[in-house]
Amino acid sequence: MSGKGGVGKSTVTACLADGLTRLGVSTGVLDADLNGPCMARMMGVKDHKPSSQNGAMIAARNAYGVPVMSMDMFLPEDETPLVWEAPSQQGAYTWRSMVEMSALRELLSDTDWGDLDVLLIDLPPGAERFQNLADLLPDLTGAVVVSTASQTAMTVVSRSISMALNIAEVEVVGLVENMSTMVCPECGYKDRVFIGVETVEELARRHGVPYLGAIPFNVGLADFLETGRSYIEMHAEHPAAHAILEVAQRVHFWLKNQSK
Fold first, then answer.
1. Beta-strand (E) ranges in 113-210?
2. Which of 186, 190, 209, 250 makes an SS bond possible with 181, Cβ 3.0 to 4.6 Å?
3. What is the pLDDT of residue 260?
4. Of 211, 212, 217, residue with least CA distance to 194
5. How far is CA 51 from CA 27, 74, 112, in A?
């Protein structure tokens, strides 16, 4: 979750699924962004057409075995918008939220995920989306929050953390800083992408939540996710791959402590 768009929630979700899987954690991914789904493409299952077996939809499995479910798989073309049936599309806005929650509930409960340790749910922007999910899943284990060091993003993310802790009463696994630095591929020099009054690590400290680490900006990372392959495997020497694995290890450590 984030609350803010454009901070790389989906990128972090895809990378975290890859990292956890490589640590031996059986991980699935649900794309909860019904209107702007992208996880199917990022996970390499864009062409999968959902089928049913014994009354359940079969989740697609990507190249490294992660089950994925996304509304993207149900849309016939990339340009096709998600439109709910209604006598009038103008009138549909009055009950759209309720219908979307019902659709999300079906994607969760009617999908055969197999035997999972963890299900990662990639939320759309908007702090209220997390509250809706918490209402739907009262036993939600925790929230991984994603932010850049942009002061605008951190202001919105700060509200989302407060929403999770104080209103939804869900534990925050930690805060991931995305696009933290730019690294020169020739000399290795690092420079911060955003410079503000407060750092993401300080924001985590202010809310009393763990700082899970910083993933540097990498032009090739977003492009590579378009292929659905494992960035960690193909570019293991890159600083971004090291950072992703470190974040996954910290999330894994948190999960193991939860199960004790």
1. 118-122, 143-147, 172-183, 190-192
2. 190
3. 67
4. 217
5. 21, 10, 10
Tokens standing for residue 91:
């009138």
What's the confidence (pLDDT) of residue 78?
67
Give the dihedral of Cα atoms 11, 28, 42, 141; nearest 10 deg.
Answer: -20
Q: What pLDDT does residue 210 have?
A: 97
Positions of the chain with pLDDT lower than 70, given as ranges: 76-97, 185, 260
How many residues are recorded in the chain? 260
CB count within 10 Å of CB 68 equals 28
Beta pairing, strands 56-58 & 143-147: unpaired
Domains of the chain: 9-259 (3.40.50.300)
Using left for φ > 0, alpha for ψ between -120 and 50, and beta otherwise, residue 200 falls in alpha
Helix H or strand E encompassing 156: helix 151-162
Kindly report, residue by residue over 1-55, the tens digit of the pLDDT.
998 988 999 999 999 999 999 999 999 999 999 888 889 999 999 888 888 888 8
d(Cα 115, Cα 118) in Å, to the nearest integer? Answer: 9
The pTM for the full model equals 0.89
- Strands (DSSP E) found in 125-235: 143-147, 172-183, 190-192, 211-217
